[in-house]
Structure formats: structure tokens, C-alpha cells
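Entry 14. Ran structure prediction on the chain below.
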Amino acid sequence: MSGFLAGLCVAVLPLLAAGFWLGRRTARPENLGGLGTPVEHATFETLHTASLAAPPLRAGLTGETARKSARRLRTLLGTDALCLTDQDIVLAWDGLGEHHRTEIMERLGSPLETGRGEAFRLKCDEPDCSLRWAVVAPLTVDDRVHGALVACAPRESAVLVRAAGEVARWVSVQLELADLDQSRTRLIEAEIKALRAQISPHFIFNSLAVIASFVRTDPERARELLLEFADFTRYSFRRHGDFTTLADELHAIDHYLALVRARFGDRLSVTLQIAPEVLPVALPFLCLQPLVENAVKHGLEGKTDKSHISITAQDAGAEALVVIEDNGTGMDPDRLRRILAGEVSPSGGIGLSNVDDRLRQVYGDEYGLVIETAVGAGMKITARLPKYQPGVHSAGPLPRE
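Output, C-alpha cells:
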């Protein structure tokens, strides 16, 4: 990631340089309304234009995103025409001379194959067309050429060749960010699937066994538990976004605990203290339930006396603080570290490493789980959830079928 950020800085610096150069070339003594010198004003304008071009590109290189960004990119270069292509077609054209589309695509074979920029003379018989030169700058992500930025102008210009190359590098950085976003989404989806596979077999078997035990002795109780089971599994196996709300996650935990209490009876007690103001907080889907399941397992495993689990969710300013604590068997801290590092199989530590990884991916390394434990001393798990994080939004209530 540090190398990537360094690349990002390298890609932004040419934009600043372009703004400085534009300011020097267009410097005039008139008052700019307190915006600074002409050089500073041009730099600010360059950065502003770049910021407007970036959001569409963060969705990848498509016809729609190319159309939304092409005009901003042409403004950055100050050229008469600009187009963005993929490997096969012109995705968007902004400015004069759109009749050059076919000619340009015919000349892109070498740049798209080698990843090297190129400039060439345009052939044109139309008397009103002022375009005579095209500068091609490939768009690359991870050494793969995705397409090209092509700037067209009335005359050959070494400055345009350099500027087009630098802007293409900046566009490539935005496409790399889009690729990283997509990779993160695929990774989160894969981890959610893995978590479902990890939780479902033993939980479904045990729940159905408990429900079956009440069918003859207490049919009404069996019916209630069957509804709890249906609601919980429906939530756990939903296909409705990567994020949920704290309220929905706690509601699913309530269904889960109803089934657990039916199985263990008085051996398990649970207390909840939830601040109402944190209920709308968005968080990764199936983020807390595995922690509660872990507490249940460690709270009851190898114990004959009663076990207790407490779940609290507090308002902590810009964050929601969720604490899940049990008085169970606990765990050797060294083994816990190896589980979270993925060095040993998490038998008895259901979902801990999965949840820790997802929290770090979504919020950053400083938001990993904080776990306090020792053998025979129970376990306390603390999760900090920012109330606002770019890109973290609940998909809304689960649609009813």
C-alpha cells in the first residue's frame, strides 16, 4: 500500500506542475479576487478539475465513466479534442473531429500492445477540421494495458505529448483504485461465504434437533423456535449487500440466542445493554454474530455451572463501542494471536479471524478486534465501529418474501 500511495503522489505532482506551467504562461497582473497569484490560481483550477474527473473513473473504464470524465480531462490538457478507448472501441469523444474515431482506432495497435505512447499525423480531407496531430498515451493497471487516452490538436507539440502522458498516468491510478475497490468487494464476499459455511452445519443441526425435541411435548414452543430459526437463517444467508445496521445484526443475534437458550436452558444467561443512538450505525454484515457464537461456545464448553454472556453497545462520540464478554474457559493468548494471524486452525474460535480481517479491510488496521483473555478467565471482545465511513452504507431492510 505504501508503494501505491507513492505512485499516487507521483501521479498528482504532474497535475500541480501543469497548473504551475499554465499559470506562468497565462499570468496577468489583474486582481484574482483574493485567490492568490495567477500561478496559484491555475494550480487550484487544475486540482479542482482533476477532482471532478476522478469519481467516474473510480468505477472503472466503461462507456459511461469515460463520457463523464472525458470533458474534464480535455480541460486539464487544454486540447481541441480528446477520446478515451478500451482495447476495441472509442468509449467517449469530447471536442472537435469525431469523424477521426475509426482512424485513431486503426493506429492504436502498437501502443495498446506495447504500452508505449505515440504521436502521429492525422489524415483528414474535411476543410473545416483543424485537427492534424494525435497523441496516444496508454492506460495501464498492473502492467496491463486497459485502453488509451488520445489527445488531438492542430499541430505537433512536445508539451502536449508530455502532458498527455502525465494525465494518462493519473487516470491509470484512478483505474487502479477502482480495481482495488472491486478486489476488496470480492474478498469481502468470499469471506462472508466462508463464514456462512463455517457457521451453518453445526448450528443448523443443533437447532433442528432442539426444535424436534419440543414437537411432541410442547408444539407451540416448537413453532416459536422454528420461526426464530427461519428468521435467523434468512438473515444469515441473504444476498442483500455487504453491510447491515447494528439494529439488524442485534436482531439476528436475538434469534440466535433464543435457539441457544432453548438448547441449554438455565445453564446460559445473557444480558444486553444497547444505547438506542447507535442502532442505525452501519457495519459489515455478519460481523457481530460470530463473536456471540464464539462467546457461547467458550462460555459453555467444559463447564457444568452456569455461564453468562454480556453484550453492550455504547455511544462513544464518532464511534460505536461494542463489547461481548463471557465468563467461560478463555484461551491461551499465544494461541489466540496465532489464530488471528492465520497460523493455526481456529477450532473453537469460530469466525474470530474472519471478523478481525473484515474490520481491518473496511475501516483500517486500527479497527481490528481487541481481545482480552486467559485460560480459565473468560474472554472480552471489543469492536470499535465508526459511525461514518466512506463506502459503508447499509443496503436497507431485508426485503420480505
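The CA atoms of residues 49 and 75 lie 7 Å apart. Will compare against last week's run tomorrow.
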